[in-house]
Amino acid sequence: MSDDIFSKLFELFDQPGPVNWKLGTELARRLAGPPQPVDPWAADELKELARLAERRVGEIAPFPVPPAPDAAPMDPRAWVEANIEPYGPLVEPFAASVAGEGEAAPFLAQMGPAIIGLQAGSLVGSLSAWVAASFEAGLPQARPEVMSLIVSNIEAVEAAGADVRSVRLWAVANEVSFRAVSQLPWIGDRLAALVADYAEASQIDPGKLSGLVLGGADPTDIERSIEGAGGIEGFLVGEEAEAPKAELEAFLGAITGCARLLARRAVGDIAPDFDLIASARDAARPELSDPPAMGVGPVPAEITQLGDRFNQEVERRYGETALAALWAGPSLMPSALELGDPTTWAARALLDGWS
After folding, report:
1. Is 43 helix (H, G, I), strand (E, B) or coil?
2. pLDDT over threshold 90, residue 158
């Protein structure tokens, strides 16, 4: 039995690349739980509403809204399978944070991909337990393909007085809008630069990490061992990551805020409970999601709310074409300070010659 445990452990850790996706996927699957049946009636309506939302968002968005190849209602386990690797660019840069020299170097070279894989698995697995779709995480994915919607999580949304159809329309409209903003051609490069800055500032102390002892072949046991040692945050050094993290969150808040603004405008007349549902989800967010100790986590509700207000204020002050100009490129994206202070943003933007 002991030989079998060590062979499984070796197999889990002996994976190529900067991220141990095998370990991360195994953990994410365990967190998502076994496959669940999907209500076919709910699935059919979600697919129908997704096409309606694409048409309506496309009519009011200040940029193109590329339709998804398909809308795929699914269970949490299937969502994990479909979404873990598309989040790769958000976790891979942090592999360089786990490095060392001398005698500890071989251990750290092996542990780096495993730790980042565990962070990826923990992120995606925990998200699968509560997000309606990717928009609630607020993290743009590389190469988004089908529109994956978690039926059980949508059906579990609680908002006093809101009917089921309004909740479903709220979910798909937000996902359509979020995908549209996320697929603007310059978003990926800007996001990659901000994640790289954050990752570079997030460093693990090799001396602390080299003393970690892991036991068992179960990814959840490995994660438990890390938590028992004080969690990943116990291995981090310095506070240099706070500023780049704030800038990354501001960028993501501008994206999620714009997506919420577009979704509200697109379907608000046929989903009058839109803001009621959004408020209920924002209020529940702190209980549903915990930020990872290391890496990129879900966008906090208050950041999305700031982004929503920021986008509204830009449009209110500078007219109907303001959002189109704002989203034409990265130079006018608000900083962490400006996201909560549109006046400061406007002073910079106007001085740069935008009108």
Report:
1. helix
2. no
Q: Which two tokens stand for residue 225?
A: 């061992």
**Confidence at 92, pLDDT banded by 50, 70, 90:** confident
Indicate the pLDDT class of residue 128, thresholds 50, 70 and 90.
very high
Q: Would strands 203-204 and 236-237 be described as parallel, antiparallel, or unpaired?
A: antiparallel
User: Could you tell me if residue 296 is left (phi over 0), alpha (psi between -120 and 50 degrees) or otherwise beta?
Assistant: beta
- E strands in the chain: 71-74, 147-150, 203-204, 236-237
Among residues 336, 340, 272, 281, the alpha carbon closest in space to that of 308 is found at 340
**From the centroid of its chain, how far is CA 116?**
16
Rounded-to-integer distance, Cα 178 and Cα 262, Å: 9
For 156, the token pair is 């579990």
Over residues 176-190, the pLDDT tens digits come to: 999 999 999 999 999
Give the Å distances, CA to CA, from 197 to 87, 191, 232, 244, 286: 17, 10, 19, 6, 26
Q: What angle do CA 63, 67, 68 make, to 5 degrees?
A: 130
Examine the pLDDT at 67 and tell me if it is beyond 70: yes
Q: At residue 74, what are phi and psi to the nearest 5 degrees?
A: -155, 175
Beta-sheet strands, E only, within 236-279: 236-237
How far out from the chain centre does Cα 311 lie?
A: 20
Asked whether the beta carbons of 88 and 77 are under 8 A apart, the reply is no
- pTM (2 decimals)? 0.85
Two tokens, residue 23: 């370990």
Using CA atoms, how far residue 158 sits from 112, 165, 236, 282, in Å, is 40, 13, 37, 11
Has residue 287 got a pLDDT over 80?
A: no
Question: What mean pLDDT is predicted for residues 228-250?
Answer: 70
Q: Alpha-carbon torsion 104, 27, 143, 60, what sign?
A: negative
By the 8 A CB rule, do 295 and 244 touch? Answer: no
